[in-house]
Amino acid sequence: MRLSRQFTVFGSALFFVVIISLYLMLDHLQLDHTKNPSSGMDRLQTGQLSVLQDKIDRLERLLAENNEIITNIRDSVINLRESVKDGRRAGETGNFSQGPVELLPSPPLVIPIDSEDCQFSTRPYSKTADGQQMLDVNDLLAFDNPDGGVWKQGFEITYDEHEWDTEPLQVFVVPHSHNDPGWLKTFDDYFRDQTQHILNNMVVKLHEDRRRKIIWSEISYFSKWWDNIDDQKRDAVKKLIERGQLEMATGGWVMPDEANTHYFALIDQLLEGHQWLERHLGVKPKTGWAVDPFGHSPTQAYLLKQAGFSNMLIQRVHYSVKKHFAAQKSLEFFWRQNWDHDASTDILCHMMPFYSYDVPHTCGPDPKVCCQFDFKRLPGGRVSCPWRVPPQAITDNNVQDRARMLLDQYRKKSKLFRSKVVLVPLGDDFRYTEALEWDQQFQNYQKLFDYMNSHPELHVKAQFGTISDYFDALRKATGDGIGSPSLPVVSGDFFTYADRDDHYWSGYYTSRPFYKRLDRILESHLRAAEILYSLALANMRKVGKSNNFPATECYKLLTGARRNLALFQHHDAITGTGKDWVVVDYGTRLFHSILNLKRVIVNSAHWLALKDKQMFNHDASNLFLQMDDVQPAQDAQPRKTVLKIGLNPRSLVIYNPADQARSSVVTVYVNTPHVRVLNTYGQLVRVQVSAVWEDTTQVSKEAYQLSFVAQVPALGLSVYQLSEGAELQTELSQYVVLQQGNELSIKGAEDFHVAKSQVETEPIIIENAHLQLKISPSTGLLERLRLKEDGVEQQIKVEFVWYGTTSKKDKSGAYLFLPGGEATPFSSSRPPVIRVTKGSVFSEVTTTLSHITHTVRLYHIQGVEGQVAEICNSVDIRGEFNREIAMRITSDLNSKDRFFTDLNGFQIQPRRTMAKLPLQANFYPMSSMAYLQDPSFRLSLLSAQSLGASSLRSGQLEVILDRRLNQDDNRGLGQGVLDNKVTANAFRLLLEKTSSTEEPQAEASTPYSFPSLLSHMLYMHLNHPLIPMATGLDTAEVPLSPYAPLESSLPCDVHLVNLRTIQSKDEGGGPSEEAALILHRKGFDCHFSSRNTGLLCSTTRGKLSVDKLFGGLSVRKLTPASLSLLHSQENGQSSSQISLKPMEISTYRLELS
Ligand SMILES: [Zn+2]
């Protein structure tokens, strides 16, 4: 307490010193001014008056800015007070008393990071005894492709007849039907044509014989079917589950893609499925089943573990890796996170050994044999065996031969594993649609099992099982995997997938990038809406009224959006590997959900921002607040709406969905350049007015861009007033437009100052307090960057390149990237038009090339966004033939063959560019960021959308922006990718200097790496922009006030993943009083300069006290739960204290009022 008082007193004293010195400074300037010759008393008086007016305006602005600084100081004091209470050692606190000095505009600011919080990222890596690290495996493997015989990508398997004499072979044949929620048909069409019949037949056919079993994974389909069946059928399903004949495997909404997905959406789809299962069936899945996602991420393993799962299965892994794991008998392992030091993330994982999950590749190594045991392919049917030996129906005459033939495959498969339990999946895409197929498979297999089981000399017990039946038996046989035989530990990921030859599935990291961006837009809207809605409901419980707030209607909109986002995480949706019309179906769902979520956000913000809640009145046809942008169609770019500004102030409510208070630039379109912007305290805010461009040199007369720095509390609302000023009180942007060194004239720019051109050979320079960017006057692209703190100029060169596809038979398509060779430089078919904008809030250079409009921007603010260059590309490659366009960044960094890409926005996976592999194999998913580093610097590219990225040379980072491919790549889609759209993608480019002498994780073998806190924060801001909402013109009378739900910002390393209102148990599907509070404590690297970063938060060793967190609300209940709420510690103590380990994601059931 003593410390915080000191802190406040010091801060306030400083504030006054600054104000007084600024006043004196102004006065001094004023003196200079009056020395200028002027004649006549009147003119002098008028001059003095206007000078006085000007001085008052500037003071007002300074007061506003200082008010923001004081707010920041207050936040920091609160943070600090909490840390002090937590018992921080006295020695460390000494550093922080310097804090307030650093908060002022120019001096460097060191953010308070507990040194203990830095230890996590620097702990040395130690490998476990029987452990495999995928980075090492990739180093070790030759990635050759020799012919392995019947098992083409493997090796010959032999066994001794007597191996099972003492311990018989246990065979679990697991029937499954893989139902894609959209691919060649839309979700609804598949349901109508196939899925509903599968499920209807399931009820009948499983009841015919209790020994029959099946597993199901896609709850999107199951719930749709459930809604359409009667109670009798529902009871029959419940019976099947009770008897263990039907198991829900994973139980997510879909079987998600693991490359392009963000962990927010992975959790959303899991929660949505699990909540449905719990509500309707009382089922708690414990085993994961992922046979089709194109490569596998440890993030999914972590999430399943946090959801309380014990086991999981994966299938699509590079054939060389499978072969290696098979040879080591390591196909079953404990998957451990790279950064896990105490084995707490281990989950038992089964990797399927062969090429596919279809029947020919699951019974054993020989597909020609296994295909004969897919009884759907019996002669006369619609499908047959490509190996030209058809199945035979099992009869008394052939059962002996057929059983022995199948057992031989089972035994061989078993030789690849450490236990004597063998798993044999039995199914394929959309299997078991017809009653006949159920009979064919189940009857014939039962005959085979009966034969095997009745011949003790075969030493086998074969049966139908569910996936958990298999894992239970495996755990029994291996003493939970740690007995004898024990199972190894594996860490790392399984990208990039190749199923044969050089067919690497790195194309889908970028395919249909328009929708990969739309996915993130929906995601950030969903999170923003969930949190604000939950806070609004809690506020209503507190104040005891809700007027006509549309709580149930909003909840339905939220549920719809959750499900549409969840559906899009499917491995043929976000991947961009569906048919054109299926893509349109997904796009329409995303688009409508975004519109609906805007209603939820606007309604919640309306409630929370109202000073007098009595005045709340919901009018569905005329909402109180309007979002400032409109997306006209599912495949179009959003457009800003032009706000009409009049003499009466119009309110702009700004919502900050980030975890920390923030100063970020907000841009809205207005109808006049004469705008006054006042903040909550009625103070004038500095504004930059820029042109709205109709084309490269034509300025709009109807609209102006209004940009200002908004200060908004964490998860809260600020209110700004916009009104028309009689005279120009804003600062106008300055422009110059160049082409081939010549200045182009700008049409309609009378309002704006057009700057005189520079010397044509000199680089174009834009700079702020932290960065200076040099841009080539001929290409209009970034060439050099200087960190002002460091003073050294670096080469950071941006260019665009083209990839074509190979001239060989197999070419690039939706899944595969098969380039014809290295990329060739992109050259614009017309000379670039370069538009330089300079202003007080931001400066930017926009370069228009054929196919690309590229913008690089700097913000003139003290917040974190002043630290980074913003890059936006609008790409249009329609009309091209078999081409992919990439942005390449070449730097001086000596990164050698190492680079880093994230996995699902959750963790960083170190990569090594491997010369032994083809170019396309060195591309990896970049769902949130990629970086390069050397001992002195780290260069990060933060991405607002998932795309494929690589570093093909030392110092180089490249990212594919769009791909247009004229042919199918033979993975079943049956078409190319020709539905390209004008696609906007956004990035932040961050150069960070290492502050210590050692390189972050200097050892090349260290399998983990972490972004800095600044990088985390910038990504948060990129992914979750401020949301401006305007009131109507006629609502000036309604008083609004800012809203700050949190006592202070969350610690720098804690992210509120979601605050998601749980559905009520009552009929009607409205909200309950409980919400799922999902928190993630991020891992971060402290090696980078933390001076002057603009961060205004501290770290607290993962400790959080929830009752103090939510300012005006009290915590009625806080119960720890598993990630998807299936397992709650209901009788555990309800404490308001939360403690998170680094990297941990935890869920709590929370009741606020
Ligand atoms: Zn699939």
UniProtKB/TrEMBL annotation:
GO CC annotation: Golgi membrane
UniProt keyword annotation of Zinc present: yes
Chief subcellular location: Golgi
Catalytic activity: N(4)-{beta-D-GlcNAc-(1->2)-alpha-D-Man-(1->3)-[alpha-D-Man-(1->3)-[alpha-D-Man-(1->6)]-alpha-D-Man-(1->6)]-beta-D-Man-(1->4)-beta-D-GlcNAc-(1->4)-beta-D-GlcNAc}-L-asparaginyl-[protein] + 2 H2O = 2 alpha-D-mannopyranose + an N(4)-{beta-D-GlcNAc-(1->2)-alpha-D-Man-(1->3)-[alpha-D-Man-(1->6)]-beta-D-Man-(1->4)-beta-D-GlcNAc-(1->4)-beta-D-GlcNAc}-L-asparaginyl-[protein]
EC number in record: 3.2.1.-
Record-annotated membrane-spanning stretches: 7-26
Membrane-topology annotation of the record: Single-pass type II membrane protein
Domain of life: Eukaryota
Class in the EC hierarchy, top level: hydrolase
GO MF term set: carbohydrate binding; mannosyl-oligosaccharide 1,3-1,6-alpha-mannosidase activity; metal ion binding
Pathway field: Protein modification; protein glycosylation
Subcellular location, record wording: Golgi apparatus membrane
InterPro entries: Gal_mutarotase_sf_dom, Glyco_hydro/deAcase_b/a-brl, Glyco_hydro_38_C, Glyco_hydro_38_cen, Glyco_hydro_38_cen_sf, Glyco_hydro_38_N, Glyco_hydro_38_N_sf, Glyco_hydro_57/38_cen_sf
Name of one Pfam family that matches: Glyco_hydro_38N
Known cofactor(s): Zn(2+)
SUPFAM superfamilies xref list: Families 57/38 glycoside transferase middle domain (SSF88688), Galactose mutarotase-like (SSF74650), Glycoside hydrolase/deacetylase (SSF88713)
Keyword Endoplasmic reticulum: no
UniProt KW keywords: Disulfide bond, Glycoprotein, Glycosidase, Golgi apparatus, Hydrolase, Membrane, Metal-binding, Signal-anchor, Transmembrane, Transmembrane helix, Zinc
Cofactor note: Binds 1 zinc ion per subunit.
GO biological process assignments: mannose metabolic process; N-glycan processing
Domain Glycoside hydrolase family 38 central: start-end pairs: 503-590
Family statement: Belongs to the glycosyl hydrolase 38 family.
Protein role: Catalyzes the first committed step in the biosynthesis of complex N-glycans. It controls conversion of high mannose to complex N-glycans; the final hydrolytic step in the N-glycan maturation pathway.
Database matches in PANTHER family: ALPHA-MANNOSIDASE (PTHR11607), ALPHA-MANNOSIDASE 2 (PTHR11607:SF69)
Name of protein: Alpha-mannosidase
Origin species: Clupea harengus
Source species taxonomy: Eukaryota, Metazoa, Chordata, Craniata, Vertebrata
